[in-house]
Amino acid sequence: MSTGYIPKKSGVSLVSATLLSATCMVGSGWLFSAQLTARIAGNWAFVAWILAAILVLFVGLCLSKVVSVYPVRGATTRSSALSHNGIFGMPFAFANWFGVMVVIATEAQATTQYLSAAIGSEVLMQNHALTYGGKFLALGILFLYLVVNFYGIKLLARVNNIITVFKIFIPLFVITVFLIAGFDHTGAVNNFDLTTNGDYGFSSAVVAIISAGLIYSFNGFQISVSFASEIKNPKRNVPLSIILSVFIILIVYMGLQYAFMTAVPHDLLVKNGGWQGMNFSSPLLNLAMLLGLNFLALLLLADSVVSPSGTGYTYLGASSRMLYAMSAEGQMPRWIAKLDPIYNFSKRSMMINWILAAIVLFNAESWAALMVIVTGYHVIGYMAAPISMGAIAPKTRWAGLVVFILLGLIMLTIPAGDLLMVNLSLTILLAIYAVVQRKVGVQKLLLFIIPFIAYLWLLYIVPHIWFVAIISAVFYILITTKSYVALCKEHSDETRVIED
After folding, report:
1. Exposed/middle/buried for 451, CB within 10 Å: 0-12, 13-18, 19+?
2. pTM for the full model?
3. Cys staple from 27: which of 311, 357, 457, 480, with CB 3.0 to 4.6 Å?
4. CATH code of 295's domain
């Protein structure tokens, strides 16, 4: 089958692609996930990390199959448009955009929570939730992201290498120090022999995949897919880079999990009734201070500012460009796409993203609460991968079916209130899109958009395992049939995308 794509010589090697994805998987998630996973899964925390890694690997391999046929820029968000059409792909595009936008708020929140632990007062946080003072500080940090994007692109480019070193070095250093500290105090080994550990099981590990931030932490795995058009031999190197980067980061996160669970004083665990009672607002920093590791506390405090900020202002720029692109394509109101004549980007788009991130931030209590919402958008975005793979390469359709069902089932672990918020926001965005695209015709909009939105609402209304498994299978089989894909292609508005 001809794709209409003529590959160009590119210079991104397998090693570079692997490191790029690996670096992007070390954001604010590593600052919180070790404690959350221990609280939710106990000793099953390590199984949770492995399950999360397997799930994102499945999604990554689906995406790599898509880019082996269409090695275009931004394939992560465009896969369903390539396999079906642009209208069908809008729910996934919106989920990706909104997920990226909410990440901006989580990064500002992460820094605020760690600063709160550093100053040791309740000015910023009370009862593990941001106070109004904390929220205004987080908004101030969010404003700095805006300033950097407006005027500091050259500065950002200069300091980016320093940020990358921080993101790689600090976690490895923390693991080493916590392991040494864990062996230094008596009773550490018994942390894995608590009687309360019997309260956990395999289901705890499954719940932790989303609720403890494991999917959030692994989300950078798809970065190499976004650069598929610039990677040497993408058919070989994209899947390899995904596998290698996920494996590397899995080792890092499992090492951090073990180091954290070893370093927590056994007496403190017993006093709090086991892992469920551990509730540090800034886990790694609080533990370092508790153990008297002041030098490590200073490094963690610095990293809590540098790493989340690096992700925050990068994602603000990325989300602004995503909204601009949707506006330029007529998928959102076109007035958003006006470019600034001096700085050559859409200030309107950036301001809309910043305001939305600020609203989300001001209405969330903690990093963990925001993280779950972000993960909901991420999982919806992931659903495009097996759908696109099954449509583009029919021989892989049954493998895609398994991945899609797993993603549907994992959505059941999202708290009902958060899933409601995710579904409502996507429905409202798609309603705006339908108004903007009313010339397309109501029939086409209903035919290509309503099936997936109906599927998401069914997950919310009837959250039962067997029902979700069956409805996921039925939905996937229907939308990857040759007849439905051919119908989508007949009304495709994305043929020019393939020629990028």
Report:
1. middle
2. 0.85
3. 311
4. 1.20.1740.10
